[in-house]
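Fill-in record for Magnesium and cobalt transport protein CorA.
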Amino acid sequence: MSPLPRGSAGAGRPRPARPTVAPDRAVIDCAVYVHGRREPGFRDFTEAYAHVRATGTGFVWLGLHAPSKAQMDQVGRVFGLHALAVEDVVEAHQRPKLELYDGSVFLVLRSMSYVAHESLERANDIVDGGEIMLLAGRDFVITVRHGEHTQLAGVRARLEARPQTLAFGPAAVVHAVADHVVDTYLAVVSEMAPDVDEVEERVFTVATSDLDIDVVYLFKREVMELHRAVAPLSEPLAWLAGHDGAHPPYLRGEHAGSFREQEVQRHFRDVRDHLVTVIERIGEYDDRLTSLLHAAATKVGIQQNTDMRKISSWAAIAAVPTMVAGLYGMNFEFMPELSWRWSYPMLLLVLFVACILLWRLLHRNRWL
């Protein structure tokens, strides 16, 4: 059999509110695949799965979009899904994870996409996305998507064009979807690179008075959001790649046999390698943005110290005439210079010279 194909394209962060999907739109596609080829005439998943169980060949691939609880309960009864898996699919907004339920694999993925923006100041989000859930057994695979950024139709079309790949069974579908999602991560981190460079340039080239530190915080928040979607996927992919010993929590239950084939594991290792690259890039961005926050805070602190020194310098200069004015404002009766004709202009000259000398001293010490 030839190698499993690789995917591409984008996706994004789950929305706070779960979208409402009409019942007739919940089932996106349903098909029976025998020896990697699609069998015609199976739109209803109940009929399709009954056919597979009766013949003992092939598997069912059911695609759903934000199903309701009633719809998912029906799917769970037909395919014999665990109640906890059904509940997680309906509730959505799950952390990326892998669970094994009585011979079936339940994998949760967060899909991410880059949000194009005209300028950094007007951007509210840098990444956005949805959620993909996969339930795979020996003779079925169910893909459930939440959000509009998953683009799983392209994954199905690419797999159907390669029947030798689909012949691997449900594991081939899980690999194709996981590879597609991880490729979207690569695309997102690549598109974020120029923005991070621009933020860095602004921090070090823009005047402190024009520095907008909110942009740095925005990118820091978005990078952390991307990290929360990507990092937890490392261990599930490690199990799928065959690293059982390092991840004992995933050993409970009976796994689907096709996931233990060496060819499948080899391609999951390739996906995990790409995920490691993404995690490293995200870590690099996070470190750079943290350094930029420190640099911006340092620049603001230096500017504040400079401003305080200037204010203190002018206050010191103003203190000289203020002190003299305070002395003459006491209205003492015996002040010898009051009877001198040139006392007033001489006093003004002395004050002027004193202020000039003090200004030169402060200027030479770079306080002004």
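KEY FINDING: The two ends are 77 Å apart (CA to CA).
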